[in-house]
Design goal:
The structure is a homodimer.
Chain A (H helix, E strand, L loop, with lengths): L3 E3 L3 E4 L7 H7 L4 E5 L2 H5 L2 H11 L3 E5 L8 H13 L4 E6 L1 H16 L8 E2 L9 E5 L11 E6 L4 E6 L7 E4 L9 H20 L5 H24 L2 H21 L3 H13 L3 H16 L4 H11 L7 H17 L17 H9 L13 H11 L1
Parallel strand pairs in A: 2-10, 3-4, 3-5, 5-7, 6-9, 7-10
Antiparallel strand pairs in A: 8-9
Chain lengths: 380, 380
Amino acid sequence: MSVIKFSIPEIIFGSGSISYVGLCARQLGAEKVFIVSDSGLEKAGWVSRLIDLFERDHLHWSYYSDITSNPRDYQIHHGGERYLSEDADVIVALGGGSPMDAAKGIAIIASNGGQIRDYEGANRIQKPLPPMLFIPSTAGSGSDISQFAIITDVKRHIKMSIISRTLVPNISIIDPYLLTTKGEELIISSAIDALCHAIESYLSKIASPFTESQSLLAIRLIFQHLKPAVETKTLKHLCQLSIASTAAAMAFSNASLGAVHALAHALGGMFDTMHGLVHPVLLPHVLRFNLPSCPEKISQIGEIFMAPQLGSTYDTALSCIRAIEKFFDSFNINQKLSEIVKDDSKLETLCKMAYNDACLLTNPRHATWEDLLMICKEAW
Amino acid sequence: MSVIKFSIPEIIFGSGSISYVGLCARQLGAEKVFIVSDSGLEKAGWVSRLIDLFERDHLHWSYYSDITSNPRDYQIHHGGERYLSEDADVIVALGGGSPMDAAKGIAIIASNGGQIRDYEGANRIQKPLPPMLFIPSTAGSGSDISQFAIITDVKRHIKMSIISRTLVPNISIIDPYLLTTKGEELIISSAIDALCHAIESYLSKIASPFTESQSLLAIRLIFQHLKPAVETKTLKHLCQLSIASTAAAMAFSNASLGAVHALAHALGGMFDTMHGLVHPVLLPHVLRFNLPSCPEKISQIGEIFMAPQLGSTYDTALSCIRAIEKFFDSFNINQKLSEIVKDDSKLETLCKMAYNDACLLTNPRHATWEDLLMICKEAW
């Protein structure tokens, strides 16, 4: 066994836990917090709630919201300047993956300078970052737990993976009550993103017992609670999805991911595709490609998705992939890549780009760009 | 669900990982490290190995070893003075629970002043501690992961539990190769300490999905690997015990413990009993006492220790307790409390002391001091 590194933030989890935000910011030495969020959270009332909480605790604040989904490099550079000019001392992100990844990018630029593309890849951040306190509003991206930030380079049309232990926030406040203001589509796509984190990290070449136990916990909870969460929208089930997303993030942050995420990043960079949409389309085909390298592990996932099977490990693993497809079919989501990407002429460029994504390094089976192209054609 | 807090150090795990110690100390800002260890580690050659590693990385160091097992308050006070007079900046503990708990105590006194008894109980440390980098040499205490420090108050003859999130070390380097220099008895008693952490945290009133998955992982690994680890002393099995101890510590640090540990702390304070010896004697009797409050959870533990059972949940839980006793019987360890404590005249005082231990608060069934006395008599 090679050396395993396992790092997660301090976690405060539970309905109503957002009220701890002032106390946590003070623990991190805050006098003036720099809030990064977006218009969706503003409309749902969460930004003003957060500002009220900081004011109640006599903390100064500054608010930055000039970000989009799939946050862009220039938005990060502007944010970095604003952070410095505001003389803030703690970065607080409130939102889904986009505001959280943007906040990480802002933290990098504020303390390390340069352009965000200078930090693409693994372990390229030299100087310590400002303290980070994150409040996720979806149960999916896991950016509040992970050492990943995904930022779009607009000139090169790619989503850069920036990976560093210093990108793990200091504190993550996970309040499942925030999920009650989210629509069905977002709940489903976020949960499937988390499911994909859990499955890809479980099969990763660098999975460890610490990450595997979290991956399996996440898979089990999403399989059990996604349908009732969508149907009832009760806090009980949303809370379980939130636990699942957090566990999946503990796993993928420390075991990394695989070909699904490598392709999803390339798709997001080229077509600005919403991250959560592409997973159900790609996952079954990537699993069939990976099957020869990890039949035992895929069959172990099958123990969650299916009743016990009598056949061989390989057959059980194949049935598991079918069971996952059936699970996806039960939700109203895209089934084919052609429903997301209208034009197949760029698939080759896309797969060459995905081949260079850091996530492909830990895919259980070595994949060439031609293999990725075959996967995309099967998913078409 | 109430608010869950989950906090662990950054973990570097693997055979040979001790060689990262200089890099990690530098990450924490070290120029001069304050090493806390003991004569056992000196004899095994680990202290000089550690010093060599620091010197290779051009770090200054100071060494403190005036500690015993069940570290005493005055040893902590001397250590705090030494840390300050040496002008050190990072505390490095190398050893089992005693040097690690002593290092935590020294960190408290160095930055907060006063007497160590001022900090007894939960959340009484106000000022931030010096950075802490821990290297455990046993697979049991979990002090390298946990927010607990246990220090003996010599005047009152009690082991004080000091509990605070700030006692979680910054980095834990867990190198299972260190276990190869340990004797059979220590491997067994440490693993049973870890098993008891895992079981008591699993049954704790404040267990959460994040801690439960780690508890079950630890129980499974210890059940599978303790016997082969003792018989073969191969790195393969020792490594699994080390993973188990780490997972159990992630669980108990965040879910706390129960009556076994409350009694073990009282026994250690009154009779200087070795911590690991008392668990196998007490655990089955505490489990029988707890059974009415958590039959489902005890029967779930049974799924690890036994073949599937046909009876009721309650019957399965009872069989599980018997299976745990049988597991203990297969090792050459004490079976009765009377083999450890020669004189039963102080049992009442002991149980009144255990009743005030912080660990009893999370025991799944409320226990009075009379209940604890009954448990001790059954274990006698």
